[in-house]
Write a structure and sequence with these properties.
single chain, alpha/beta, binds adenosine-5'-triphosphate, ABC_transporter-like_CS, ATP binding, P-loop_NTPase, nucleotide-binding
């Protein structure tokens, strides 16, 4: 099994064009920990993740992987330890699925660029695990959003990372695949940092939750304690009710507007039809 990585983010600032996006964020993630990164749109989650996987160099502060500054570590060495699944994952759309998954081996390839038998079986196993083996010969361009997401996850697994970075990994996934993905990341035994929007899923799947707001880290801790009515009001501007299940995990009741008319949506349809 791959050795889980230790991640330490120290006082990271990033202000593209002078606009502060990350304002002194510090976060330590222990080897094997699964951390959920929460926060409203534009709070800085993707930016922080880009700093963590060496895509974006912070203006100030540092990111340490296994104790070494990632900007003083050769990119190829970082690529062997960190894999990222993001919304804008680079992919040649004409490549077929197996080729995309095989790209995960790029940091390990020798001068000839040939895959070993062991690597081929790793690729097969990752495709099976992410339920994309049946798509192996399909062009990436022809896949649905959820299928692409699972292919990108298989590519990341093939990389055998010690740190797996996931930016909204459940986006596009149906309910079963969301549950399976979050179950899978807990089983991998590697360090995971995942930006998530579904607070209930995040609380159920993560060891710890971290909340960003306007570029600041405003809360972190046990998922049973982090998601509160006060946090939802202050950070998300939503007056939701939070109850606790028997497992102590949060259950959200959202303040949706009442449906129009006594018959609800059916009445709306009737009104529209008679208009
Ligand atoms: N390269 C860039 N140049 C200028 N501004 C940027 C750049 N990248 C991100 N931003 C801005 O930084 C802010 C944070 O963006 P980021 O994508 O990190 O947020 P997020 O929390 O991931 O949001 P979402 O939940 O919508 O994905 C946004 O206002 C965004 O417009």
């Amino acid at each position: 099994m791959t050795e889980p990585a230790a991640l330490r983010i120290d006082d990271v600032h990033w202000a593209p064009g002078g606009k502060p996006v990350l304002r002194g964020v510090s976060l330590t993630v222990e080897p094997g920990e699964v951390v959920g990164l929460l926060g409203p749109n534009g709070s800085g989650k993707s930016s922080l993740l880009r700093c963590a996987y060496r895509r974006q160099r912070p203006d100030r502060g540092a990111v340490h992987l296994d104790g070494a500054d990632i900007w003083r570590t050769p990119a190829m060495r970082v690529a062997r330890r960190v894999a990222a699944v993001t919304q804008d994952a680079p992919a040649d759309l004409e490549n077929h699925v197996e080729q995309i998954v095989a790209l995960g081996r790029t940091p390990y390839l020798g001068a000839l660029g040939r895959l070993t038998a062991g690597e081929r079986s790793l690729i097969g196993a990752a495709m099976a695990r992410c339920e994309v083996a049946h798509l192996a010969g399909r062009s990436y361009a022809s896949l649905s959003g959820g299928e692409r997401q699972r292919v990108q996850l298989a590519r990341a697994l093939v990389q055998e990372p010690g740190l797996l970075i996931l930016d909204e990994p459940t986006n596009h996934l149906d309910l079963r695949h969301q549950v399976e993905l979050l179950g899978l990341i807990g089983e991998l035994g590697v360090t995971v940092v995942a930006a998530l929007h579904d607070l209930q899923l995040a609380a159920a799947a993560c060891d710890r939750l971290v909340v960003l707001h306007d570029g600041h880290l405003v809360a972190e801790g046990d998922p049973r304690e982090i998601v509160t009515e006060r946090l939802l009001a202050e950070v998300y501007g939503v007056a939701a009710e939070v109850s606790r299940g028997g497992d102590g995990l949060p259950r959200l009741s959202l303040p949706l507007p009442p449906k129009r008319g006594e018959g609800g949506r059916a009445a709306c349809r009737d009104e529209a039809a008679s208009a």
